[in-house]
Amino acid sequence: MLKFIGKRLLMMIPVLLGVIILVFTIMFYTPGDPARIMLGAGASEEAVQQLREEKGLNRPYFVQLGDYIKNIVLHGDFGESFQTGEPVLNEILERFPTTLKLASLSVLVSLIVGLSMGILSATHQYSWIDKFATAFALLGVSMPSFWAGLMATILFSSILGWLPASGSYGWKYWILPPLVLGLHSAASIMRMTRSSLLEVIRQDYIRTARAKGQSERKVIVVHALRNALIPVVTVVGMQFGVLLGGSILIESVFALPGLGRLIIGAIGKRDRMVVQGGVLFLALSFSFVNLLVDILYAYIDPRIMSQYKALNKKKKKVSKNV
Questions:
Q1: 251, 260 in Cβ contact below 8 A?
Q2: Nearest CA among 217, 206, 213, 246 for reference residue 102
């Protein structure tokens, strides 16, 4: 297992390097001069050129890219914000807990709703429950999260007045954003749970468990659901990464001081150091979530753990024979 984790960590390196190069290239060639934006439209050309020289903006593309990668790898330095002059890493670490909290609460909502509706839909196939759950899944998948956020704000804040529209000053402010983001992901989890569970409950060992007189709840929860969780866990891991990225729009809709809102503001101001650092941090988080999902596979399904152990034994025998 440790060797597997080590290999996965090594595989993250080219992925993150590709993210760095891609985002850096996009921001480098995006129209708009950061120095001109910082100084304003009325600044003289001499002042703009001096600021470009100070910030290193007039250097060639490959020189800037090489220095950026070298600073990250050797010093863990993501650079300084063009607008505030603060280290980018400090700004990211200050905003990331809000984004992580939003994504975690959204995953919790999506798990509760998606798993529950998926189990009910699979165990009551072709009933009105199944039809309602399928309609919910189609609606959730096709409805953009930012539009749902705006509609929820109009309904629950403007019309009904039950919940605040924006900000993060108390627990009431953390109801609408996770619900909007979580219900969107719950649709995907519900569909995967339903299809995976329908496949499992038709297996022979499920019929055997029922023939032994076990209750239907025990058959579904103990025998069927655990074996159906592998693809569901994959979807949950993917959805968590999607929620981290999708929180960019939701944070803007609900005015949450998270990493997504920081990136949106930096894009408008051409503060490419903040954009590059924020996207790289999200990619790193997504990679670690995928690693955690792969580790969970072994604990959910004992067969996967036995495959790891058998592979290690084979390697040990080969090394001894050599």
A1: yes
A2: 246
Q: At what angle do helices 2-29 and 61-75 cross, to 10 degrees?
A: 150
Amino acid at site 243: L
Q: How confident is the model at residue 200 (pLDDT cuts 50, 70, 90)?
A: confident
Residue 136 CA: distances (Å) to CA of 23, 113, 117, 129, 143 = 36, 11, 9, 11, 10
C-alpha span between 210 and 216 (Å, rounded): 7
pLDDT digits over 11-53, tens only? 888 888 888 889 888 888 877 777 777 777 777 778 878 878 8
- CA torsion sign for 286, 288, 291, 292 is negative
Contact 190/112 with Cβ under 8 angstroms? Answer: no
Q: What does the domain layout of the chain look like in residue ranges?
A: 2-75, 92-321
Count CB atoms within 10 A of the CB of residue 82. 21
Which residues touch 216 (CB under 8 Å, ≥6 apart)?
123, 210
Residue 202 half-sphere exposure, CB side, CA atoms within 13 Å? 8
Q: C-alpha dihedral over 19, 23, 29, 32, to 10 degrees?
A: -170
Closest CA to 134 of 83, 93, 194, 81: 194
CA distance 55 to 74: 20
Of the options 1.10.3720.10, 3.40.50.620, 3.30.300.30, 1.10.357.10, the CATH number for the domain spanning 92-321: 1.10.3720.10
Candidates 219, 217, 191, 192; CA nearest to 204 is 219
Mean pLDDT on 82-87? 80
pTM of the model: 0.76
